[in-house]
Amino acid sequence: MKKLLSANLKENNNIEVSISKDLTQRIVTFFFIYMNGKLIEKVIPLSRNESNNHNIYTLVSSKTTYTPGIEYVLYTDMNMQIPLDISYLATLPAFDEKYRCDDILGANYLKKMTTFRVFSPFASEMKVKIKKNVNDQFEYYSMTRLDNGIYEVTIKKDLEEYIYLYEAKIFSKIYEVADPYSYSLSSNSNYSYVVDINKIKKIDSNTDNLPILDSKLDYIIYECSVRDMTSRLNLKNKSTYKALSESTNIETSNHIKTGIDYISSLGVSHVQLMPVLDFYTVNEDRPFENYNWGYDPNFFLVNEGSYSLDPNDPYLRLIELKNLVSSFHKKGIRVILDVVYNHVFSVNDNSLNILVPKYYFRLNNDGSLSNGSGCGNDIESKHYMARKLIIDSILHFTDIFDIDGFRFDLMGILDTETLSLAYNRAKELKDDIFFLGEGWDLWTNLKANEKCSINNANRIPFASFFNDRFRDVVKGQTNESQLAVRGYLSGDTNYLDGFKHVMLGSSKPIAFAPLFESSAQSVNYLECHDNHVLYDKLKACLPFESDEITFKRIKMCILATLLASGIPFFHAGEEIAQSKQGEGNSYDKGDLINGFDYKLLEKRSDLYYFFIQAIHLKKFMSSLAKEKNVKFDENIQFENLPFGCILIKYIYSNYTISVIFNPTFEKFTYDLQKYNKVIFSELGDINKLDTYCQVAIINSVSFAVYLQEESQDA
User: Fold this and answer.
1) 78-91 pLDDT, tens digit each
2) Residue in 155, 172, 149, 404 with CA at minimum distance from that of residue 272
3) Catalytic residue among 402, 409, 536, 574
């Protein structure tokens, strides 16, 4: 709703004043401009227009410069007072050059003193207000403004666990905000807490238990939500960091473990946690009254409180997250955080936009918010202090919580320089730090060659990208309107050459132009938290097929994902063909749709064991390649088989592993030329059966893996 009174600085010292006719019908003939309470200029309007029950006046100020940090107020000829908003200046390159710093921001705690720093160049006054307990009265401390737009104050006493807020006067209005550099928050982000962050850093993160991984091609990623992995278990503390960080002591009737022990049993190298940085839409005091994945960020240096046993304890949520990371590390699993640096839930309520309006969020040429994220706003990652915030967040979680990687939601919103700087800084802390993200070319107001999109993969070679081409070729299109479209393994053999392309990590020119120079940039996936899960997709495009056939296709899909060049990625529940009841976007659909279904795991344990054995096969092939001094994705050959089927050969010196995929309902034989040992099929690992064949019988909707040693006789 338009304000009754407003005044905004525009280009070339133009000032636009809007006065509601509900306030006065009288035409204003002149304005006085005051600076910090002192009259500096009288201005007669250059023009007047009418719009939406407002009179709009255009003034041209003869004052040559307007300076952030100074309070400007207009008075009408009737003595109506109108604060002047000069936030337009934040859109100018000169602003970004002058107002910046590399200092540590937030509450920097020492036992005998705490220094508070906050970036707010437009503020004419800034105070920090502190109190020991919620029911105490606040103590106020005035902060000193520095030339670079930083306000700071040092309070010389022990403030550990104190509550604090900033009180800023910006364009004559008082705002009370939590610190955008909060290391800890109360529930629902109402207050910031002063904490000694080094106490969290000192918690053992068990990195000594992590196995050495020679390359990204050794990675196997498993995506899950902290809440989802225990939400459907009979646990007192279900859906929390603590529940996932400890053994649940709950097993299925066929003795399959749950929670973190279940994830550990799979053999994956990395767990990717869906957002655990502070998000907006779940009431942290009553978390089971609603549900959200967390792609609605609020603060970037503190973790979410709805997963904590007590979101109002200054330290507990931090300790719980560190313990969760340590628990995964103890089991030999690295931890990736899914981070959402592309937008915030609510611009108007966010501390960043309140403290520095028009700075942290990207604008279109007409001054409107850029909306490539589809969430109403895009972070302006090119601005120095916005870039600093993103980098500081990444370094904070790498250094303090020992996080091993970051998955960037809507990575195409960010610019390549920001991501490169972040990666290089993080790599100084952890040499094998891993960056991956969604590389869509989004309609954000950023030059095409600056976006962290898949089109610019060569500009950020350290980053890996979710390969949508792999998903669409292998299983078929995923959009709601294209669910009936099949892919290669769902029976459309017209994708035969496309299947070859994606099995080479989309790095070779077969059927399509390459997406990547190296397959290590390809994250191969068929299911993630977004869109329809694999089971639901197959039921949509092959509704006539029984579950028995669907499960065969899912096994084929899992094997293809693991054996394709690149980095295999799985979403929790994919391995047991879990359904979301046809929900394509379940971000707020609750625990019954999203929670991991251990009863289904019990019923489909054969799929679970197949998944484990398929991972063992992948690791066996990787180790065999290394033993022969070749890379997993080298020396791969294809042979077209009848009916659009395919044979893939992985040649490692005197070993050849042949994989035949038959996604059709046809049956045929194939001459392998020499005797091969059948080591894997839809039954899983059948190596112990000592089955050899020279002529393979290829059944309908089936696959098989054969091992040949050159020393064997035909």
Assistant:
1) 999 999 999 999 99
2) 404
3) 409
pLDDT (tens digit per residue) in 551-599: 999 999 999 999 999 999 999 999 999 999 999 999 999 999 999 999 9
Contacts of 195 (CB under 8 A, 6+ apart): 107, 109, 160, 161, 183, 184, 314, 315, 318
512 in Cβ contact with 454 (< 8 Å):
no
438 is annotated as an active-site residue: yes
Q: For residue 371, which of 304, 319, 444, 321 has the smallest C-alpha distance?
A: 444
Asked if 409 is an active-site residue, the reply is yes
- Among 200, 281, 288, smallest CA distance to 240 is for 288
Beta pairing, strands 668-681 & 691-698 = antiparallel
Rounded Cα–Cα distance for residues 128 and 141 (Å): 5
Pairing state between β 702-709 and 38-43: unpaired
DSSP 478-525: -SGGGTT---TTTT-GGGHHHHHHHHTTT-S-SSS--S-SSGGGEEEE
**Please, which residues have CB within 8 angstroms of residue 548's CB and are 6 or more apart in sequence?**
none
Tell me the three state secondary structure of residue 660: strand
Residues 6+ apart with CB under 8 A from 400: 197, 200, 201, 322
| pLDDT per position as a tens digit, 32-72 | 999 999 999 999 999 999 988 999 999 999 887 899 999 99
DSSP 379: B
3 state DSSP class of 706: strand
d(CA 384, CA 519): 33
pLDDT in tens, 11-34: 989 999 999 999 999 999 999 999
> Catalytic: which of 228, 404, 438, 527?
438
> 178 and 129 in contact (C-beta within 8 Å)?
no
Rounded Cα distance, 307 and 283, in Å: 11
